Amino acid sequence: MRASKSARFSASKWRSFHKLHFSEHEIVDCLDERNVIGSGSSGKVYRVELSGGEVVVAVKKLNKTAKGGEDDSLNRDVFAAEVETLGTIRHKSIVRLWCCCSSGDCKLLVYEYMPNGSLADVLHSHCKGGVLLGWPERLRIGLDAAEGLSYLHHDCVPPIVHRDVKSSNILLDADYGAKVADFGIAKIGQMSGAKSPEAMSGIAGSCGYIAPEYVYTLRVNEKSDIYSFGIVLLELVTGKQPTDLELGDKDMVKWVCSTLDQCGLESVIDPKLDLGFKEEISKVIHIGLLCTSPLPLNRPSMRKVVIMLQEVSGAVSSSRPNASKRSKSSGKLSPYYVEDVNSV
């Protein structure tokens, strides 16, 4: 009889970062293709129910690499670096890493499960029965994500650069609170002590979100993240993806600026939004355009972005305290992590 998956992982090296209310070996036996909820170049993500369904986690299983090769060594180093980094992070707007496992050429990362999938999935879902995010919800999501990125930039030592900020890497919990995800696997080189110029010069980012200076420098830093976050803010306002065909030959920033000049504010705002929030939406557009300034030095820090969004959020709360109730989950299982075909 073939040994169970958990038996084959009996010699695995498990490492926990929080008090666990489940058994690590419970996880392994649930890594079934029927539980896959997303996949990408780095591996697959599974939705795993534990303790009789009382606990749900998301398990990322990293792809295998050739033993003894350069990729194998790099994979081990990157995994170790991510584990060391993510294991120390404690922030409400960062997806929590519960534990991890390293067993030969198989590596698992166990995260908290975000039942409402990604912001991209909810914001751009045209499926029947999809959730409509009102402006207060969108603003809260933007503020939550900004706080997470500010923590990475300003409160982590050394600072962590996400390198792939986009709406599909902002995940939503049961109450549509937002948490930043997927900032470790391919983006932790500088944190592991690498000092060569190539440490942070690998191809990073996704089409439509990449800062313009990256084209000629092939380098990323905090200002690159801020540009990408500015695109997310404009995405929240317009309801359009940065690669939307409706933008024509323009990028998101140029489309917003030209549409504002030629057609006015209402033509920029997602028609599904309540125009009663027009003043607050206009302020967020301004913040988004500041973040996407062509010159990196002119972009505000994420700490400053948080302050500006808090001011807008305060205005929304005081003007319409009961304007919008949070949407309830439709119960639809959304993708937790799907590699964007436009990733570069």
Kindly state the number of beta strands.
Answer: 8
Radius of gyration, taken over Cα atoms and rounded to an integer in Å: 21 Å
CATH topology assignment of the largest domain: Transferase(Phosphotransferase), domain 1
Give the overall shape. Answer: globular
Identify the strand order in the major beta sheet.
Answer: 1-5-6-4-3-2
Query: What is the count of distinct domains?
Result: 2
**What's the CATH H-level superfamily name of the largest domain?**
Transferase(Phosphotransferase) domain 1
Structural class, judged by helices and strands?
alpha+beta
Question: What would CATH call the architecture of the largest domain?
Answer: Orthogonal Bundle
Describe the main β-sheet briefly.
6 strands, antiparallel
Percent of residues in beta strands: 5-15%
Arithmetic mean pLDDT: 80
pLDDT < 50 runs, ≥5 residues? 188-201, 321-344
Can you write the helix and strand succession as a string? HEHEEEHEEHHEEHHHHH
Measured distance between first and last alpha carbons: 45 Å
Portion of residues within helices? 25-40%
The total count of helices amounts to 10
What's the CATH first level of the largest domain?
A: Mainly Alpha
Membrane topology: Single-pass membrane protein; Single-pass type I membrane protein
GO cellular component, one term: plasma membrane
Catalytic activity: L-threonyl-[protein] + ATP = O-phospho-L-threonyl-[protein] + ADP + H(+); L-seryl-[protein] + ATP = O-phospho-L-seryl-[protein] + ADP + H(+)
GO molecular function, one term: protein serine/threonine kinase activity
